[in-house]
Amino acid sequence: MADTSTGWDLNRRTFRKGWGRPSQLLNGRTDSICSHMARPKSHSRPNGPLAKAGTQAKSKPRILIVEDEPQLRALLRLYLEREGYAVADVGDGAAALAAYDAQPPDLVILDLMLPRMQGETVLEELRDRGSVPVLITSAKRTDADRIAGLRQGADDYLGKPFNPHEVTARVAAILRRAAPSGGNGHDLTDEPMLSLASGRLALDPATRRYTLAGEGTDAARSGRLTPGETRLLLALARRPGSVMTREQLLEAVARRPDDVFERVVDVHVANLRRKLHDDAAEPWLIETVPQAGYRLVARRDAT
User: Fold this and answer.
1) CA nearest neighbour of 253 among 165, 150, 168
2) Which CATH architecture fits 188-296?
3) Mean pLDDT of 80-85
4) DSSP 301
5) How far, in Å, are 169, 176, 178, 193, 243 from residue 222 at the CA level?
6) Euclidean distance between CA atoms 39 and 13, whole angstroms
7) With a threshold of 0.85, does the pTM exceed it?
8) Which DSSP string do the residues of 181-234 spell out, in sequence order?
């Protein structure tokens, strides 16, 4: 059975008993999972953006790795700890939720093919609990798999095999986007409350909490948007009635403009419509403009 132990061990410099030396992780089975496995230049102390934090453990972002392959899990932990993160790791889906409930992390690295509970179910449960950023790492690597993961609520998706340096780079990028400034130089905490359609929708950008008034037989509801959904809706609201291209919206949500991640705009719009009861055929909030992009059709209320 896979090792499912957890814990925020901020000062650990060696692998747990049975995992072997770091050099052993670069051979054998792990080579078939990760590519370009260059060892970190030094394992003596953290050398990342938070290395100067010293003993101020509370300042370190906490990363939860959910991966059933022990060697790969250990390798990811090695690279992340070297970058100055506090890392916990588990080997199955049920243990992932228990670790989250015990101490919510700042980011989750989630494999999909897990024992005891599939990664897709774990992601659903995490989204029910809050908006913790999630990076999926999976051998499911088709465009359809990536889009499905993003549509379900993941913040990024990386197919296996992968370079562990890319994992740490993506973790840093996701945490920048999840910060109050959203990683694009625009501080969400400075945004005023957004009210649309005579109070039908109210959004607090600082907390990303929204309230949707009841319409017809629909009861009022509330919830929280993801950082990307919030930035996209704010970008549309700054130009009500104007068409914004996908490239413009990509810049607003700070995503990579490649073939897969260009579709993140469509994923965010689909999620906004689902959460805010917006019908694409008869929209009250966001209209699709074929071959052009999207525009906000709801009137922005005076604040």
Assistant:
1) 150
2) Orthogonal Bundle (1.10)
3) 96
4) P
5) 34, 26, 21, 15, 27
6) 15
7) no
8) TTTTT--GGGSPPEEETTTTEEEETTTTEEEE---TTPPPEEEE--HHHHHHHH
